[in-house]
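Structure catalogue
Derive tokens from sequence
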Amino acid sequence: MKVPKNKTDFESLEGITKEEIIEYQDLLLEWLEDINWPVSTQVIKVLSPYISSIEQGIIKVLKSSDYEWAYNVVLHLLTTTNELPESIIYEIRRICETHTEFEELRETCEMLLNNLKR
């Protein structure tokens, strides 16, 4: 399995395939719960090209009550592209319209939507 075993396990991500990314998307996204973990930067690089392929895992994070995790996914992963699947855009809009508990998340979602419009 090509999923990091600890915070500094960069080697496990080497040569990871699209199929493995899709299969283990939930486990890989967990490494974005704390952006200070050294391996999180490498996980972002691995996931970025496949956002459309892992949209279901991303939506689970955006719907979760872990607002810091959702914030990390929006700020550090979703901002790496100018094209997002409609289902993710829908969740980002929902956060903008209904989310007030974690102001930084709402503001980051608004910024992302504004950047996508350009």
User: Anything to note?
Assistant: Residues 11-117 form a domain with the Serine Threonine Protein Phosphatase 5, Tetratricopeptide repeat fold (CATH 1.25.40.750). The chain has a mean pLDDT of 94.
